[in-house]
Amino acid sequence: MHADFRAGARDVLPVLLGVVPFAMVVGIAAIDAGLTPLQAIGMSALVYAGSSQLAAIELLGESAPIAVVVFTAIIINLRMVMYSASIAPHFADYRRRTRAFLAYFLTDQAYALSLTAYEADAVESERWYFLGVAAPISAVWMVCTALGVVLGAGIPDSWGLSFAIPLVFLAILVPVMKDRPRTVAALVSGAIAVLLVNAPFNLGLPTGAVAGIAAGLFTEVIRNR
Q1: The pLDDT value given to residue 74
Q2: 144 to each of 5, 207, 221, how far by Cα in Å?
Q3: Membrane spanning segments where (predicted)?
Q4: Do 131 and 105 meet the contact criterion of CB atoms below 8 Å apart?
Q5: Does the pLDDT of residue 164 top 70, yes or no?
Q6: How does pLDDT run across 58-102, given as a tens digit for each residue?
Q7: How many CB atoms lie under 10 A from the CB of residue 205?
Q8: Rounded to an integer, what distance in angstroms lies between the CA atom of residue 145 and that of residue 152?
Q9: What is the C-alpha separation between 166 and 183, in angstroms, rounded?
């Protein structure tokens, strides 16, 4: 096993503690919304994006138009485009099919941990470190989604599994708020999402995401001037 793969797997261990309840909540929510077990597990394998999955599942449970479901999922996942653009230079020397393979495993956690290690010049092989971080996340996500599907009805609400979801993202968000544009983007998007929490079809979340991106870009432009 490559040394950088082992290093990535070691670094991601604390993060997996938050992925476990997150994935279980997704599995439980999918069944509650009327998806079959195969659909719930297949969604995690094909979409593989927890926050957009939860939003889509909630909308499906509310019988929202499919266009709204797809649009919401796309808006929430737009951050992956920015992640990809940011991390792509580290994989520029690899073949296209290798980059496509790695792209499937891109998540918030894998991006944050990998970029931190790359910027610190702490790894020799960006690919192996990324896989060391991302592969355990993917494996735990699939297994725990299935557990949520199977055990969902037997898990009491008192366990508070859903509380782990914001904690996972806060653990990722806080360390990367290193400059004014990122901080402004986080504050604006969070504030708008909270203000529009009762918006129909959960549109407050994509609205907050778009507003946060715009605010961050505007702040970046002002700073550069």
Answers
A1: 85
A2: 22, 30, 42
A3: 12-31, 64-88, 130-153, 159-176, 183-199
A4: yes
A5: no
A6: 888 888 888 888 888 888 788 788 889 889 999 998 999 999 999
A7: 23
A8: 10
A9: 17
b/e string for 148-172 if b means 16 or more Cβ within 10 A?
Answer: bbeebeebeeeeebeebbeebeebb
Q: What is the DSSP code (8-state) at residue 124?
A: S
Task: Report residue 76 as tokens.
Answer: 């929430």
What's the CA angle centered on 99, arms 69 and 75, to 5 degrees? 20
Q: Is the pLDDT of residue 161 over 60?
A: no
Outline where the chain has alpha helix (H).
3-32, 37-46, 50-61, 66-77, 79-87, 96-104, 108-119, 126-151, 164-176, 180-195, 204-224
Rounding to the nearest 10 degrees, give the CA dihedral for residues 100, 52, 167, 220: 70
Q: Is the pLDDT of residue 3 over 90?
A: yes
